[in-house]
Amino acid sequence: MNTILKTFGLILIGLTLVACGSDGPASFLSGKQVTVSVVYGSEKKAWLEPLVAEYNAAQNQTADGSTIVIEATPLGSIEAIEAILAGQIQPTVWSPASSVYLPVAEERWQAQFNSPLTTSPPQDLVLSPVVIAMWRPMAEALGWPNEPIGWADIAALAISEDGWAGYGYPEWGRFKFGHTHPDFSNSGLVAILAEAYAGSSKQRGLNQDDLLKPELETFMQQVESSIIHYGSSTGFFAERMFERGPSYLSAAVLYENLVVEQEQKRLTGQSGQLPVVAIYPEEGTFWTNNPYVILNGSWVTEPQREAAQQFEAFLLDQAQQKRAINLGFRPADPAISLGSPLDAEHGVDPGQPQTILEVPPADVIQEVQYLWRQAKRPVDVVLVVDVSGSMAGDKISAVRDSLAQFISLLDNRDRLQIVLFNDQITPLSELSPLADKREELTRRVSGLVEGGDTSLYDATVTAYNDLETNGDPNNIRAVVVLSDGEDTSSSRGLPEVLSELGAGAEEGGNAIKVFTIAYGDGADTRSLSEIAEPTGGKQFAGDPATINQVYAEIALFF
Predict the structure, then answer these.
(1) Gap between the Cα atoms of 137 and 273, Å rounded
(2) In angstroms, rounded to a whole number, what is the distance separating the alpha carbons of residues 44 and 200?
(3) Taking burial as the number of CB atoms within 10 A of a residue's CB, which of 6, 90, 160, 526 is the most buried?
(4) How far apart (Å, rounded) are the C-alpha atoms in residues 286 and 128?
(5) CB 34 within 8 A of CB 68
(6) Are 23 and 301 in contact (CB under 8 A)?
(7) Smallest Cα–Cα separation from 383: which of 478, 519, 264, 501?
(8) Distance (Å, rounded) from C-alpha 239 to C-alpha 234?
(9) For position 188, what pLDDT does the model report?
(10) Which parts of 319-451 are beta strand (E)?
(11) For 478-504, how does the pLDDT look when each residue is reduced to its tens digit (9 = 90+)?
């Protein structure tokens, strides 16, 4: 995969962590000390962050009297190991969301360093099963809680022309599903592995021969056909689902603790949404077990290893484990009894999951990721690019490179259109499959020339309307708008733009998403945000130094 995509979002984190391979001082402490850097999946931030602060405040010491300082940084599970293997960060501890990616990480680590990833089996910190979060009325329409629900039901709903009308609820429209990008997010990877198991009618022993069966690819295509978009963050799906409601997402692959968190907000009056419940697929699921991996890296010193082990023991102490329950996690210690909020009132079942799927070997995991790329829902995307006079110099130069990179990240089945604007609107290409024009488009964007005024509003609406007319509603549809300044030459104003974009709002999650990029200090951030957010898209900020990373993150939605 493109190197830029793999390193997205790691520049600032790298500056923070790259020096952590040696024992370093903390500005607020004095004397001899040892620094332990931890990169961890952000899903446990609410539990881990205050514990780090408390541990540091207690000034715990190693056997030789060195004060232990913990530096913890949240980072996507797969992003983190990519950065470690690339030498961009050198943490002492890697704590991904689950052990699912460990076989791949172990294989790649041994190939690169000729040594094991860690010298001792990683301990689980806290647990949360991966679930399908669904609005309770919708789950009840499928037979919950009396009837088991699984991936076969999701596949049937996804391809049903009647959608929810087939269950007596035409007002709910089509089934709309979500999971994150499996190349970058633990929950997305777990989702496609669970699809592969369900489509193979297995719970253990998934192998290469299973993945070659045409009926499995068909099954995955059926499930993926209802995806509204992908993304890099499980939390983003939870946020979007619980903010926008059932018209945006019918269900999404989340962690059980996120369901508990949402229901706690609803029960305390902080959310007016419908109740949401956790569905534990009858075919089986995986644990988010948050392993604590003390890395066997050359940069990890023995004092750091000792300090990391002491911090691990602190996290596994009963007092800290019990605090995890209040946040919707299950303690790693089975001796600790469960209680509220891990209960039916908060949409979960502490007696589930009944079936835990086996983590496949590394080669099978990687082959499932490849199979997903063949089965995933294609995208129709229109890139709307500001080439007005204010884009001169480094701005236009960086955009040329980032557009070429974006083109390289799309699949041959995806359809792409590029529209340039200044005081005029100039289509650079029509909406058509990328396979037929990848090389030509890459050449064309490398020669963009700036000049003229800025017709941001007209260009955005024109691209949106063209996509609505020519786009395939069976594909993910998106408009990506980059602009570095305020509109100076459109025939319409912002209220008219918002009105025209809002015309498709009744489609909910299947509506065209608009992603906007406020490029540089002079960009009209307020207007670009107002254009993106109502569509279910997102506004990004970028400059010549970061625009590659911005386009790479947007590509993860597709």
Answers:
(1) 12
(2) 32
(3) 90
(4) 9
(5) yes
(6) yes
(7) 478
(8) 9
(9) 95
(10) 330-331, 379-386, 415-421, 425-427, 432-433
(11) 999 999 999 999 999 999 999 988 775
| Cis omega (within 30 of 0) for bond into 50 | no
Q: Taking a C-beta distance cutoff of 8 angstroms, is the pair 252, 179 a contact?
A: yes
Cross-strand bridge partners of residue 542: 519
Whether the bond between 433 and the residue before it is cis, its omega within 30 degrees of 0, is no
Secondary structure of 498-543 in HEC code, one letter for each residue = HHHHHHHHHHHHHCCEEEEEEECCCCCHHHHHHHHHHHCCCEEEEC
Average pLDDT over residues 114-118: 97
SS3 (DSSP) at 35: strand
Tokens of 277: 């419940």
CB-CB contact of 227 with 379 (8 Å): no
**Calpha distance 19→288 (Å, rounded):** 30
CA distance 115 to 296: 8
Alpha carbon separation from 170 to 37, 166, 174 (Å, rounded):
52, 8, 8
pLDDT band for position 353 (cuts 50, 70, 90): very high
Q: Where are the alpha helices (DSSP H) in 151-301?
A: 151-159, 186-199, 208-211, 214-224, 234-244, 256-267
Q: What gap in Å lies between CA 386 and CA 452, rounded to an integer? A: 10
Q: Which residues pair with 476 in a beta bridge?
A: 379
Residues in the chain: 558
* Matching residue, tokens 């499928």: 142
DSSP summary character for residue 185: -
Distance in angstroms (rounded) separating the CA atoms of residues 236 and 485 = 28
Write the burial class of residue 12 (CB in 10 Å: 0-12 exposed, 13-18 middle, 19+ buried): exposed
Write out the H or E segment, with its range, that includes residue 402: helix 394-409
Is pTM beyond 0.85 here? yes
pLDDT at 233 over 90: no
Which residue's structure tokens are 């699809």? 195
If we measure between CA atoms, which residue out of 293, 245, 292, 235 comes closest to residue 266? Answer: 245
d(CA 480, CA 478): 7
Could you write out the DSSP letters of every residue in 321-345? HHHHHHTTPEES-TTSPP-TTSSGG
CA distance to 193, 349, 360, per residue, from 126 (Å): 22, 17, 22
